[in-house]
Amino acid sequence: MKKIILIAYFSRAGENYMRGKIVNLEHGNTEIAAGTIARLTGAPVFRIVPMNEYPEKYKECTEAAQKELMDRAAPQIREYPDNDDYDTLILGYPCWWGTMPMPVWTFLRNTDLSGKKILPFCTNEGSGLGSSIDDLKRLCPGAEIRSGLSILGADVKDSEPAIREWLHAENII
Ligand SMILES: Cc1cc2nc3c(=O)[nH]c(=O)nc-3n(C[C@H](O)[C@H](O)[C@H](O)COP(=O)(O)O)c2cc1C
Questions:
Q1: Which one, of 142, 141, 146, 148, lies nearest residue 162 by Cα?
Q2: What domains lie within the chain, and their CATH numbers?
Q3: Is any ligand 1 atom within 6 A of the Cβ of residue 47?
Q4: CA 96 – ligand 1 centroid, Å
Q5: Which of 9, 47, 78, 148 could serve as 120's disulfide partner, Cβ 3.0–4.6 Å?
Q6: How far apart are CA 89 and CA 54, in angstroms?
Q7: Which atom from ligand 1 is nearest to the alpha carbon of 13?
Q8: Residues 69-73: contacts with CB within 8 Å, 24+ apart?
Q9: Cα angle 132-152-154, degrees, rounded to a multiple of 5
Q10: Segment 83-128, tens digit of pLDDT
């Protein structure tokens, strides 16, 4: 049976921390990885956009994100996909404080993913997938959570071979 895939991701451009120093990213690392996955699969891409954007400054953003995580906040997102006729969700996010940013939690809480497969990919500065897989399992109890792909944000532009290998192992390409 042909797989119907949706790529959904959250990513934040602006100031970030890469290889030990502050840099200014025109396009977020996860956005770049999502673009590579879209090119390799031909699948449509949905961007998870919070109603209130995070601060451009890295330090302010980490503080806002930490508070949201501690409060288990539910920041609203601008929109949801038009339909749910996909059977495989390729879900991308940066690692924030060891897990997914809270807008991704909002997306998952308000989307029925039972019976669907989720393939997570996470760009990060060294924490790998953190606790995101456990969090995903808790948030999406009826979904099949496949092994995730961790991508070092600083290496995202060279990550196509690893992405290709992962998608191949998951029978996506
Ligand atoms: C708020 C915030 C928290 C972060 N927390 C972590 C972390 O816990 N572990 C880690 O390895 N990287 C952390 N990072 C670095 C990002 O995961 C990394 O730069 C990622 O590639 C950014 O993706 P994006 O450009 O798509 O947003 C954090 C960055 C931000 C802005």
A1: 148
A2: 9-163 (3.40.50.360)
A3: no
A4: 5
A5: 148
A6: 25
A7: 25
A8: 69/96, 69/97, 69/99, 69/102, 72/102, 73/102
A9: 140
A10: 999 999 999 999 999 999 999 999 999 999 999 999 999 999 999 9
- Is there an atom of ligand 1 within 6 Å of 41 CB? no
For every residue of 117-154, DSSP letters joined together read EEEEEEEESS-TTTTHHHHHHHH-TTSEEPPPEEEEGG
Q: Is the CB of 10 under 6 A from ligand 1?
A: no
Q: Model pTM? A: 0.98
User: pLDDT tens for residues 122-169?
Assistant: 999 999 999 999 999 999 999 999 999 999 999 999 999 999 999 999
Question: Is the pLDDT score of 14 beyond 70?
Answer: yes
Counting from 1 in the atom list of ligand 1, the atom nearest the Cα of 27 is 25
Tokens coding 118? 């989720």
Give the pLDDT of residue 1. 58
In short, whether 16's Cβ falls inside 6 Å of ligand 1 is yes
